Structure formats: structure tokens, C-alpha cells
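Following the same procedure, the fold was encoded as C-alpha cells, giving this record:
***
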Amino acid sequence: MSPAVPFALGLQAPLFLLGLLAVPLLIGLYVRHERGARRGRAAFASPALLPAVAPRLPGWRRHLPIAMYLLALATLVIALARPQVTIAVPIDQARVLLVFDQSGSMASTDVAPTRLDAARRAAGLFLGQVPSRVQTGAIVYNQAARVVQGPTRSRADVRNALAAVKPAGSTATGDALSLALSVARRAAKPGAKPPPAAIVLLSDGKSVRGSDPVAVARDAKRANVPVYTVSLGTPQGTIPRHDRNGNVVGTTPVPPDPNTLARIAGVSGARSFDVRDEAKLSAVYKRLGSQIARKKQPRQITAGFAGGALALVVAGGLMSLFWFGRIP
């Protein structure tokens, strides 16, 4: 998701700006008139006699009303071009889906105290940063994905849903992302547009069954739903291996797959992070929340320019009336 900008200026009828060419033309005509008047005064009397036979000229002040009229003309031409600003305004339907890996590999203790607890801590960090108007939901998955909390503004409900998650089973990340994309794009009411949405995937990244998560990320890109990924685990991660009686008989390596997580994020138009870098996570969570909680909306400012042109005309007239007793 691209960084938000406070506003952008645009024009709906830019061809009207060609009218601005009249301004330098009128300036040239005015300068020509002033030079002609100066030559006329010189022909009427010699420069030495002018102060005695001609009234004293008002100097630079006589040019100010004309300058105001020309500026008013330029402002009116811009008004005809129908200027508008695009600003970020708050919206209330935005939602973020937390997709939470609960596969057996999440029991590894290579990220203290466990990968699952680290993911829960990262999710809690997100819930503390996202603006209150953004709805958040939670999906957990191993070999199957399920919604444990639909989109809501209650952060406590999401935390409670994630608190009950236990590690077990294998991993089907693509299926979980498909479910999250479906929930994220679900309209609030029939016929309404899907709300702006994003997905935050917290996983060790090793998907072993189900649909291809990178292919689902491409679908998310087309739907304008970025998938931010948070990588969990280290290459040294292991989980206990048990015999039929439940006794620990060794360990099973469960290295993470950060490359796949990075591809998921990149393909969808988002970024990937490591769970151990809480400073970066905090920053991206805050930025993500503020971006998704606002939408760009154009607003006309033509009336402001038209009003400014009128004010300039009035100001020029008042200057001329006050200084010279007439309005040109």
C-alpha cells in the first residue's frame, strides 16, 4: 500500500488554462499604453516644464489596481478550469484480517517462548496500533482454515479468540489466505462495494498442502487487498517427536520459509517483516491502520477561486477609488 498523502491538486477542465495567455498579452498592452502616455507628455512640454504644467503622477500606486485586476483575471481562469483537491477522509467500513498459523511447527521454541506466543504478541501489537474505526477479524489455520472472530471493532474479542489457539496439525497457508480474502471483500450489505481491506499473515511460512499461497496473493493483488506477512522462526527450529506412548524420542526440524512469505507479500503489493523486529512491525502496523482507515476523495474548490477573483476586483476598485477618486 502506497504511502498516504494529505492532499493532491487537480483540474477537471485544464484546457481553460489557455486563457492565462491573455494575462501577459494584457500586460504588454498596458506597458505599451504607459509608454505612449509618457511620450505624449514629453511632446506636450519639455521635461523641465512638466512639473509646472502637468499634475504630479501618483508613481507606483497607479499600477496596483491594474495588477489586482490582472491577478483577478488569472484567478478566474483557474476557477473555470474547475480545480479540485483529493484529500484523505475517514471511513468506517475498513477491515484487516489477521491470518494466524496454528500448525504444529508453531510450538517450536526457537523464538521465545514459542513461535505461537510470538505470533500472539505480534498480533497484540497490531491490535494496539490500528485505529479504532478499523474492523479487525481473525482466521486461524493448520491443515484447515476457520474464522475464529469475524470483523469487529472490539479488540478484546479478537485477543480472546487468539488466546485459545493451540499448535497442532500441518499447514495450508493458501487455503487460509483464500478464506481471508473472501471475508475481507465481503460487502457490508447486498449491492454495496467491498470495503477497503488488508491481510496480515503471521506464520513460519512452510505450507505443505492446499492451494498455492503465491497464486492466492496474485488474486489479492487484483482485488486490491495487500497481504503483509510476518515471518516466525529460525533455521534451527525444532519440535519434539513422540512415540506411540507419547514419550519424547527426539526432535523434528521445522525450519521456516521466509522466502515464500516474502513472495506472498511482494506479489500482493505489500511488505514482509520478521517477528523479532518489533520496532519495524510497530511502524508498519501504525501506517497500515491509518492508510486503510481513510480513502481519497475529490472536493471541488472552484468557488474558492471564484470568490478570490471577486475579492481581488473589489480590492483593486477600492484602491483606485481611495487614491484617485475614480474606478477605471
User: Anything to note?
Assistant: Residues 22-44 form the longest helix (23 residues). The chain has a mean pLDDT of 82. DSSP finds ten helices and eleven strands in the chain.
